[in-house]
């Protein structure tokens, strides 16, 4: 797996950025910025340490799918670590086999650091070679959208 990193400075408090990013007060803020990855992007579950969470959306044929993950760690307004371990195909959970072996156990970490009213969000994630170009193009767009929402 490859490790990639993205950063953005947001003129807002770490608390507000964190709440906006995770959709803690309104899931729509999460859905807005993650729509860059999939226009129907959402999640089901909670942001509690050890909790199972689904990151889901529908494909061009209307089929529901996504990632099965666990909140590996969370420190409010500072850090969240998501460990991906399976795929959702409709209502079927796939946690073993060729489809998930390449990336199962991969982490997606978000670190927030606030200084003088500006919060730097750093995203560190594991990915496979197949998704490298996609993420290099899509993450900056998603973070720009998060910035515009959190700065309102």
From TrEMBL:
Family that this chain belongs to: Belongs to the AHA1 family.
SUPFAM superfamilies: Bet v1-like
Gene3D superfamilies linked: 3.30.530.20
Protein name: Tungsten formylmethanofuran dehydrogenase
Domain Activator of Hsp90 ATPase homologue 1/2-like C-terminal: 13-150
Domain of life, source organism: Bacteria
